[in-house]
C-alpha cells in the first residue's frame, strides 16, 4: 500500500528510522523461514510501516499511557507504533506462536522496553483498562469491541485499520471518524458503544 505524499523520513522520532531499518532486516530474514507476513521485499516492509504510523498525523496521544494491539501478526501496527511512541506502554496480543516468537525476537533485538507480548487471544487474558485499542485486518468493528470490552473504560478509544468495506461496520459502534488515505480507511472510534 502506498501512502500518498508521505515518506518514512516524515516520521523521524527518537531514532525511529534506524529501528525501522533494523526491523525490516529482521523481518525479511525471519520471514524466509517462518512466513509470518506477506511482505516480499524491503519496500513492502516500508509500505506496511508507513501504513502503521500514518495515524500519528491525526491521533491525539496527550492522555494515552497504554495501548493494546489485537492480532499483532508481524508487528503491524502495534509494534511499529510502539517503536514510534516509546514512552507509551504497548501490549501486543498474538496467539499464533511463530508470529509471537518473531515479536519477542524483535523486542529483544531492538531493546523495546515499552512493549509486552502476550501469546494468546485478547479475550483469554486477564482484563486491565487501556486508553487505546488498535487492530489491523483482524475482524469487523463490532466483534473487536465485543472481544475487547473488558479492557474498555469510559474514555477508551479504538483505532481500526480497515479497507473499503468499513462502511458496512458502522452501525451502533459509537462516535467515530473515518480517515481515508489511499485504499486504507482508519476507523477512529472516539466513544465506544459497548453492548
Characterise the protein shown here.
The protein is of the alpha/beta class. The chain has one domain (8-192): Vaccinia Virus protein VP39 (Rossmann fold, 3-Layer(aba) Sandwich), CATH 3.40.50. The chain has five helices and seven strands. The chain has helices spanning 16-34, 42-53, 78-84, 97-110, 141-147, and strands at residues 66-70, 89-93, 115-118, 130-136, 152-162, 174-181, 184-192. The chain has a seven-stranded mixed β-sheet, with helices on both faces. Helix 1 (16-34) runs antiparallel to helix 4. The longest helix is centred in the N-terminal third of the chain and has 19 residues, at 16-34. The protein is globular. The termini are far apart. The model has no long low-confidence stretch (mean pLDDT 93).
Number of helices: 5
Radius of gyration, taken over Cα atoms and rounded to an integer in Å: 16 Å
CATH topology: Rossmann fold
Helix amount = 25-40%
List the helices and strands in order: HHEHEHEEHEEE
Number of domains: 1
Please give the CATH class. Answer: Alpha Beta
TL;DR?
The chain has 195 residues and is α/β, with parallel strands linked by helices. Helix content is 30%, strand content 25%.
Per-chain topology:
Elements (H helix, E strand, L loop, with lengths): L15 H19 L7 H12 L12 E5 L7 H7 L4 E5 L3 H14 L4 E4 L11 E7 L4 H7 L4 E11 L11 E8 L2 E9 L3
Parallel strand pairs: 1-2, 1-4, 2-3, 4-5
Antiparallel strand pairs: 5-7, 6-7
Helix pairs in contact: 1-2, 1-4
Can you give keywords for this protein?
195 residues; Rossmann fold; 5 helices; 30% helix; alpha/beta; globular; 7 strands
Amino acid at each position: 500500500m502506498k501512502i500518498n505524499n508521505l515518506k518514512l523520513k516524515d516520521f523521524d522520532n527518537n531514532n525511529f528510522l534506524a529501528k525501522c531499518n533494523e526491523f525490516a532486516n529482521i523481518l525479511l530474514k525471519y520471514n524466509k523461514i517462518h512466513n509470518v507476513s506477506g511482505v516480499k521485499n524491503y519496500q513492502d516492509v516500508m509500505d506496511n510501516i508507513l501504513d502503521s504510523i500514518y495515524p500519528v498525523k491525526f491521533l491525539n496521544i496527550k492522555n494515552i499511557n497504554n495501548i493494546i494491539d489485537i492480532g499483532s501478526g508481524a508487528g503491524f501496527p502495534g509494534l511499529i507504533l510502539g517503536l514510534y511512541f516509546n514512552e507509551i506502554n504497548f501490549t501486543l496480543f498474538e496467539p499464533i506462536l511463530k508470529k509471537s516468537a518473531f515479536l519477542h525476537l524483535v523486542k529483544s533485538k531492538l531493546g523495546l522496553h515499552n512493549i509486552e507480548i502476550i501469546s494468546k487471544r485478547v479475550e483469554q487474558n486477564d482484563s486491565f483498562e487501556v486508553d487505546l485499542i488498535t487492530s489491523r485486518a483482524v475482524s469487523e468493528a463490532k466483534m473487536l469491541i465485543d472481544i475487547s470490552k473488558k479492557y474498555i473504560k469510559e474514555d477508551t478509544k479504538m483505532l481500526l485499520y480497515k479497507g473499503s468495506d468499513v462502511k458496512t461496520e458502522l452501525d451502533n459502534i459509537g462516535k467515530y471518524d473515518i480517515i481515508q488515505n489511499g485504499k486504507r480507511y482508519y476507523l477512529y472510534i472516539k466513544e465506544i458503544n459497548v453492548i
